[in-house]
Amino acid sequence: MQVKPEQVLSQLNTKVPPAIWVAGDETLLVQESCDEIRKFAQEQGFTEREVYTIQGSFDWNILLESSNSLSLFAEKKIIDLRLNSAKLDDKGKKALHTYLEDPSPDNLLLISSPKIEKAATNTKWFKQIDALAYVVVIWPITSQNLASWVRQRLKGHGLAANEHAVDILCQRTEGNLLATAQEIDKLSILSDDKELDAQMVARAVADSARFNVFTLIDTALGGNTARALNILYHLKAESEDPLKILNFICRELRSLCKMALLIENGQSINAAMQSERVWKNKMGPISTALNNHSLAQLQAFLSDASLIDQSVKGLNKLNTWDELSRLILELSRNQLTLSA
After folding, report:
1. Nearest-angstrom CA–CA distance, 335 and 340
2. Which CATH class is domain 2-138?
């Protein structure tokens, strides 16, 4: 059954289902919801954890073998299944159904994915899952609701801010929830006062790093190859986490793919950007990127990003920073002109 994110813990206190599926396009909110579920499960004795990232030709038999195998220490375990897409092939659908036909009470299957399309929720295979599992749908925070979300986040850190201060925080982080959360974390450390004013927030948030990930992405999307590569070089020198950079790039690429599909279906670039709620100060680089890259090219970039993700995790021998440089180079080039 579908469960609201804020109701997950109360539902789990009533009943722990064999599987929980957390779905949404807000990476931070999906991650935090999964963290909350994992913490609860660990408190209930699910102290072992196996993580599987589903992409490409994943062998779904691994899931069934894991569900049937006994823990080395006879402990309950979480099977953490991370989907790059909520659209499963026939093998994946069959594996989930097989798992749920006879789930072990010593296992909790935790699935996380991008949002599940409405059409998919009406299919027979999904309704079978919905009947046995909790489905937690994470809705995006709209620009109208962002200020309220920021205030709630500040409150969780024992902070409060006036309206002007909240507006500055929203504008400077451009609606990026992960960036906003990081700035609030920083404010909770740096601020001696519990009441934040506009000047205090502006001083703390303004250009916290001369070369940051958001500048890198906007510069690459805007087509400035030399500056984008220079920013990436400085991020590497500052020991920035390459996975963090990659996650932000993938977030933008997924959004660009959605807009590129709308454009292929006849919408204008402006209409596509409005549909994706692109912030005004990001419309320039986003528009440039949509003019420079086709949907197929953007999807190819996501495939490249998947290989980089594997390199970070030691699953291939590629040099992570070299591959990031190549991705930034390709992303900042005018591919449509080059391929003409």
Report:
1. 8
2. alpha beta
Rg (CA), the chain: 21
CATH number of 143-205: 1.10.8.60
Domain boundaries, the chain: 2-138, 143-205, 213-335
Q: Is the pLDDT of residue 170 over 70?
A: yes
How far is residue 215's CA from residue 228's CA, in Å, rounded to a whole number?
A: 8
| pLDDT over 90 (residue 214) | no
Residues in the chain: 340
Mean pLDDT, residues 170-188: 81
Report the distance separating Cα 45 and Cα 104, nearest Å. 14
Select from 182, 143, 177 the least CA-distant residue to 279: 143
pLDDT tens digits, 22-64: 999 888 899 999 999 999 999 999 988 888 888 777 889 888 8
The yes or no reply on domain 213-335 and CATH 1.20.272.10 is: yes
Q: Which residues pair with 109 in a beta bridge?
A: 19, 79
Of the candidates 26, 21, 5, the residue with the CA atom closest to the CA atom of residue 141: 26
- Which one, of 208, 278, 279, 267, lies nearest residue 238 by Cα? 208
Chain segment 253-270, per-residue pLDDT in tens = 999 999 999 999 999 999
Judge contact between 200 and 193, C-beta under 8 A: yes
Please name the helix (run of DSSP H) or strand (run of DSSP E) that holds residue 82, with its range, or none: strand 77-83
Region 134-156: mean pLDDT is 91
Residue 207's region, left for phi above 0, alpha for psi from -120 to 50, else beta, is left
* CA of residue 245 relative to chain centroid, distance: 12
Q: What share of the chain is helix, strand, coil (3-state, %, to 5)?
A: 60, 10, 30
Q: Which amino acid is at 178?
A: L
Instruction: Name the band, by pLDDT with cuts 50, 70 and 90, for residue 278.
Output: confident
pTM of the model: 0.61
